[in-house]
Amino acid sequence: MAPRVVVIGLASDFGCQVQMTNIEDDLLDVLGLIDLQYWQLASSGHMPDSYDVAIVEGAVTTLEHIATLERVRATASAVIAIGACAVTGGIPALASHGRLEERYSLVYGDGPSVAPGRIKPQAVDSVIDVDYRIPGCPIDMGEFVQVLSRALQGLSDHLPQEPLCAICKTKENVCFYERGEVCLGVLTRTGCDARCVSLGRPCTGCRGLAEDANLESALRLLDERGIDTSDVLVRARLYNTLEEAFTR
Amino acid sequence: MSTLTVEHVARIEGHGTITVDVDAGAVQSVHLDIVEPARYFESMVVGRRLEDAPLITSRICGICSPNHMLTSIKALESALGLEVSERTQVMRKLLVYGSFLQNHATHLYLFAAPDYVGLPSVFPLAETHPDVVDRALRIKKLGNDLTTLVGGRSVHPVTAVIGGFTSEPDPRRLEAFRDTLIATVRDAVATVDLFSAFEEFEVHTDGEMLALTAGDDYAIYDGEIAALRAGWRRPVSEYRDIITERVIGHSNAKHSTVGGEPLMVGALPRINLNAAALSPEAARALEKSPITVGSRNAFFNNLSQAIELIDALERCAGYIDRLLEMGGSTQVEKFDIAAGRGAGATEAPRGTLYHSYEVDATGIIRAGDVITPTAQNLANLEADMWKFAPTVVDRPRPEFLMAIERLVRAYDPCLSCSVH
Amino acid sequence: MTAYQELQQNPYRPWPARITSIIDLTEQERLFELRIIDDGVREAFEFTSGQFVELSIFGVGEAPISISSAPSKQGFIELCVRNAGDVTGALHRKQCGDVVGIRGPFGRGFPFEEMKGNDVLLVAGGLGIAPLKSLINHIHDDRHDFGKVTILYGAKNPSEILFRYQFDMWKHRDDFDLILTVDDPDESWGDEVGRVTRLFDMIDIEPENTYGAICGPPVMYKYVIEEMRNKAMDVDKIYVSFERRMKCGIGKCGHCGVGHQYACIDGPVFNFWEAMNLQEAI
Amino acid sequence: MFFRIMDKSRVLDLVAGLSQDFEVLGPVSKGDAFVYQRIDDPADLRLDYDTTLLPPKKLFFPPEEQMMRFRVADNEVVDDEVYAAPRVIFGLHPCDINGLLLMDNVFLRDYVDPYYKARRDSTLIVGVSCTPQESCFCNAWNTDEVHWGFDIFLTDLGDRYFVSVRSVKGAELLDDHVETRPITDADTAEFQRVAREFEAGFSDELNTSQLPLLLDAKFESPIWDELGERCLSCGACSMVCPTCYCFDVIDRLEPDQKTGVRIRKWDSCQFTEFASVAHGQNFRESRASRVKYRYYHKQWGYLSKFERVLCVGCGRCARACLAGISPREVVTALEAGGVGE
Ligand SMILES: Cc1cc2nc3c(=O)[nH]c(=O)nc-3n(C[C@H](O)[C@H](O)[C@H](O)COP(=O)(O)OP(=O)(O)OC[C@H]3O[C@@H](n4cnc5c(N)ncnc54)[C@H](O)[C@@H]3O)c2cc1C
Ligand code: SF4
Ligand code: SF4
Ligand code: SF4
């Protein structure tokens, strides 16, 4: 029996769900493996009461999201968090800084009250346990297909732990630091095929802090190069506001 | 009285709920509640470096991220007084069209089409009408490939930055791509035929229609704001004086008005305002289609998108020719940080998108504002729903609700955009 | 080049092998009997105790697994596998009759021929019994070639004792001195309690003609060797088997480095004199 | 080996001639740097390059390659053929040629690696002399000279090349495609002069005596902790190294999960996962132990088998390492007993 899959969107730009539809060549093959029970973006229908795999996109920004996730955890045997929003809080978590009410009034003024149950943005795993993570803003389609396939087989997630530089080297890029620019690749979890750096744009850290990364040393080295490390930390927080290591 | 709801309307981008109150066979009220969570983007950019703004605000929407990115970049360039090269401008237009092709194909085939054939999604069509699904995926992929070719990635392109592009597509690939674009015009024409053949509802929308115009170009990247009924043209920098946003109690998205009345943006207003600039094949398709220029049937927004597909393909082929002819490569223009404010607009697939920022002398953003197309459309959409619901209320309930959903979908709303 | 190597044009290419029997040993460990499908390859497949194969499940990956059966068992090989992750987990989900892949045999095994004519002391901890089981069975099949054979085997608790059915039988034999011990006994446990090193007080060996063989979790080696040295055994008659990460099994992928050696081709069985001179070994 | 003289201007003829029968690859510029790439226009070839970003190993052992295609249902290999087109790599420096010879020891001995071998067998090598750069220390390992491992080697004598011909194939190619003349005593004298000038061009001579012993004797030295604190665990050093050959093997299923490919990709001993096994055990958990292992293996592990160190002194790792860790520094530190700044 094909595993029953639901796709759930929390606070996000839907970019990762769009990305899921962007595997055009493979979309039908992937769909052939699963029994897709709920995907609001692509199909009418109701969220079923029972299913096997939940794919969750987006950050947690309302009490309703928390309730949804708790239901999901109680039901699904595997939860896959996709995208920076769900995995590290991503861009939505920028709003977790400072007072939420101030942000609210900046955007909505003092008219009728909307956005009920609002809370500071969080990553999915701060609410429930997550079995598989696909980081990145947006997710890499190839990685999505591979992780989904691993999840369906019940295998470990194989999330890479090292920083981006190794794969960047295999692409034969000249390191940004040689040109006096800052690149967060040295701290960021690999797995994106070094796409941005190969296209001439320094890594902005959307895949989160690599477990292997040596933050202390990196900051010391940048400092030695005359780079303002507090500015580097601000940059690193762009997609990683919730990463404690970047808060100092 | 009974209250009917469609929670989390499917096949649209974002979360919205339709509520209709019906009493003794008469529609009492119709609402579209945008339950998409608030994300406070305008507050997020405050205090960040200006280079971060395009990265941040493009995360408002994953479907039209190229538009958000470019609109943000344009607004910042206007604040900095920075001019970019013609090459950069052409490449940016290709990027916008990539998002048009991708979005229109997704909207038309994956979101809208199932309604016309009474299916919950497009997936069952894969078995019964594989040719149609293949065509849909082909156009969609072409859009993604175009964005990827120019921007490095289809969702959240990476190469577009303030001042230009960090990388250039390989001319050989551009050339090959040009041929694919031309070859796909056939698919786009078939799309127009398909949607022309569908039996369509009718609702006469009353709102003003706005779109960018730029002389005899089909404006999507630059130009002025034009109003269809009022007939005026005004510069983008005045957008905040033109469009008024208001918080509505039942929705996390604001509603917009122009001169006190609701407004519509998107493919239909664009065609109404710029039909004369359509590419030859697109103009022919418009001619044959049930749409007449100036049409106020909001449902025709779908068909208008289909016509825009043809236009996009032909136009992009021309842009690629232009790039190849120009030769050389884009350089990222250097700029000095200076205090300033600036606004920018582009046509996103579902209508005009505005960004504006205020930057201080150290390059830190002090204020930001974004008005998305869907936020502009919502008031008008709700007005259309009030008008349309009574005309179909005598149908069986599921069919009645489906008809209203269909109207919502015709606007191709992007609800996550609308709450940003 | 052996006939087998000649067959093996691409050493990374696994041979299809059919699972012919699966026995549950404990909650986590199962004994899989495999039969290489290709007749020529099966007949050419020769190994010594202590060698391993790369078990291959396409779509999941490969894992190095010691051969548990004796070389004297013809046509079949046994693998005693703990469900420890992806590959081993996938193997545990397989059924009798399913096909998996194996490459090998790889590595250096125990010096069986050299050990002949001597006493043998085998010490196993936990899953470390897997390669030693092959040696024990091989000795059993050639029993008259060996002197006294002592087996010390420790596990965390009684339910983790592997091959218990066989060992329970063997405890009563007088050609093997077998002592079992567990850290956490239950009511059913009638054997020893405590670390395997404790058992050294209970045994008597003639150090000058005793060969030692050790396999177990990394922490165990140091203490067992200390006991063997206390018993005055020669360092170059002690053999240890190491587990390291491996991706190829044939000395290319670099993962299994132990000091200046590779566990896959220089080991996994090392003479303790060599191992003493290996950094990172113990 | 025999020798010929070729006019410098003839190089383009030779490349153009070779292109008729082979795919020709060589150094071309990429921004301010150089990469080995397919040469479509002989004018792109940059024989004056200093060093390339990636070593030629990428052409024999690509960063990622398919090993076999498999079918899941019956666990069968459906394809493990390696297709290697005949090609010439034009312009390898001695260090890189030596790097390949060191890789050969690993991939072509004992269990022969069919993927590497197929590419190696189908490739001809044209070497070219170089000028020592600041980061080079090939002289420390005698990898500044090369005596085999090429088909033709061109030594730059200013207006002409001193051509050393090593293989029959090399002789044929030379004969077929370019005009050369026999060497004269004057040529040989010039050749010797150039060689001496080359030797004098190195900034220093690294003291590498007793390195294996030192590595063992200083296994617990705080040098490694200092280096470990600096190392970013980025693996850049291993990727750019012409002699690092470690790889990871990964199975990737096609989206329909019926078939898939087993691939291998470059790995690095600097990654935490590298030496970890099931049950959370990791034999090299600390960064210090991993940095140490890279040197330990290169200067002693490999040497214990092949009597050469696994380094050709190309200096690529030193250039790539943001933390500035380099063999030169490590060797000097072992000699001196501490990490100097
Ligand atoms: C010589 C030798 C003999 C052995 N004999 C036996 C035996 O007889 N019986 C037995 O049960 N065990 C034995 N083992 C141990 C056995 O090989 C391991 O338990 C087994 O490899 C675990 O593999 P797995 O796929 O099940 O586990 P996993 O831990 O899931 O590992 C899966 C694979 O993926 C890799 N991996 C895991 N996580 C990551 C990540 N984050 N990034 C990249 N790669 C990752 C691992 O390297 C592994 O190869 C032996 C080991 C050796 C070296
Ligand atoms: S820091 Fe950035 S550019 Fe430099 S090697 Fe790492 S990923 Fe590449
Ligand atoms: S260790 Fe460094 S210097 Fe030596 S061969 Fe490798 S990259 Fe070159
Ligand atoms: S390149 Fe330098 S920092 Fe990176 S792993 Fe190697 S030694 Fe460490």
Walkthrough of the structure:
The complex is a heterotetramer of chains A (248), B (420), C (282) and D (341). Chain A is α/β, with parallel strands linked by helices. Chain A folds into 2 domains: 4-153, Rossmann fold (3-Layer(aba) Sandwich); 165-246, no CATH class. Chain A contains 10 helices and 7 strands. Chain B is an alpha+beta fold and 420 residues long. Chain B has one domain (41-380): Cytochrome-c3 Hydrogenase, chain B, CATH 1.10.645.10. In chain B, strands 8-7-6-11 form a 4-stranded mixed beta sheet. In chain B, helix 6 runs antiparallel to helix 7 (171-197). Chain D has 2 domains: 2-64 and 73-199, no CATH class; 211-336, no CATH class. Helices cover 35% and strands 21% of the residues of chain D. In chain D, helix 7 (211-217) runs antiparallel to helix 10 (287-306). Chain D is globular. The model of chain D has no long low-confidence stretch (mean pLDDT 91). Chains in contact: A-B, A-C, A-D, C-D. At the A-B interface, helix 1, helix 2 and helix 5 of A face helix 1, helix 2, helix 4 and helix 6 of B. The structure holds flavin-adenine dinucleotide and iron/sulfur cluster (3 copies). One iron/sulfur cluster binds at residues 231-237, 270, 291, 320-323, 325 of chain D.
